[in-house]
Amino acid sequence: MPTHGAAAGKTRSRGCFITFEGIDGAGKSSQIAAVVALLRARGIDVDQSREPGGTPLGERLRELLLHEPMHLETEAMLMFAARREHLAARIEPALAAGRWVVCDRFSDATFAYQVGGRGLAREKFEALEAWVHPGLQPDLTLLFDLPPDIAAGRVASTGVDPDRFEREQRDFFERVRGAYLERARQAPQRIRVIDANRPPEVIRTEIERIVAEALSA
Ligand SMILES: Nc1ncnc2c1ncn2[C@@H]1O[C@H](COP(=O)(O)OP(=O)(O)OP(=O)(O)O)[C@@H](O)[C@H]1O
Ligand SMILES: Cc1cn([C@H]2C[C@H](O)[C@@H](COP(=O)(O)O)O2)c(=O)[nH]c1=O
């Protein structure tokens, strides 16, 4: 982890990049605010964002991605187009200035949803990833893991109209979940798997411990 001058009195360097991942309804959004509040309470300058989105152009692409039917490869390329803009306009400048970035989803989501869920060729994903953010990965990723049937129940209970992804069937989310867990096995130091089938306050305590570890590293 980079140093975090305001909190530790050390020299400020590049900021820390933390991402949250999981299938729809896993409960990550509910926990992000708590983590951001914890970091700010420790004196850390945090930029909270999301993907797809995070910039005016990215938010327009998000509307298309969540609601407009499209070819699988169009979907993957638009996810990375929004990400390219997000990195250039927001993530990279923030990290370079020593700010921390907490983001709801990043490229692990493209691996899980487009490769795992939809069947995009891995080499196409790898080529896009290597093009758009060579050498950059989050410093820490919290992966909320939950069986799809429980997650679907949570999504339904919100009463909000489901988007194109949320309307997918259980087998789609089984594949997405499997791809996330495969990605976590490939990068166990970076991706921490959180059992999301527990009460929110228990999850919050575990996440606060993991983030506190990151702060003291
Ligand atoms: N640990 C939990 N136990 C039970 N319900 C939860 C838990 N965490 C969140 N929920 C509820 O599940 C619903 C979905 O939560 P949330 O929006 O945080 O999920 P999400 O992972 O961000 O989903 P999405 O990616 O679709 O936005 C909300 O109604 C929320 O209150
Ligand atoms: C970044 C990214 C996202 N998705 C999907 C995953 C979700 O269903 C939506 C975003 O909605 P959320 O409620 O804000 O999580 O987009 C994807 O398929 N691929 C991606 O790279």
UniProtKB/TrEMBL annotation:
ATP binds at G22, I23, D24, G25, A26, G27, K28, S29. One of its GO terms (cellular component) is cytosol. It comes from the Bacteria. GO terms for biological process: dTDP biosynthetic process; dTTP biosynthetic process; dUDP biosynthetic process. This is Thymidylate kinase. It comes from Thauera humireducens. The keyword Transferase applies. It is an enzyme of class 2 (transferase). Pfam families: Thymidylate_kin. It catalyses: dTMP + ATP = dTDP + ADP. Phosphorylation of dTMP to form dTDP in both de novo and salvage pathways of dTTP synthesis. Its EC number is 2.7.4.9. InterPro entries: P-loop_NTPase, Thymidylate_kin-like_dom, Thymidylate_kinase. Residues 20-207 form the Thymidylate kinase-like domain. The gene is tmk.
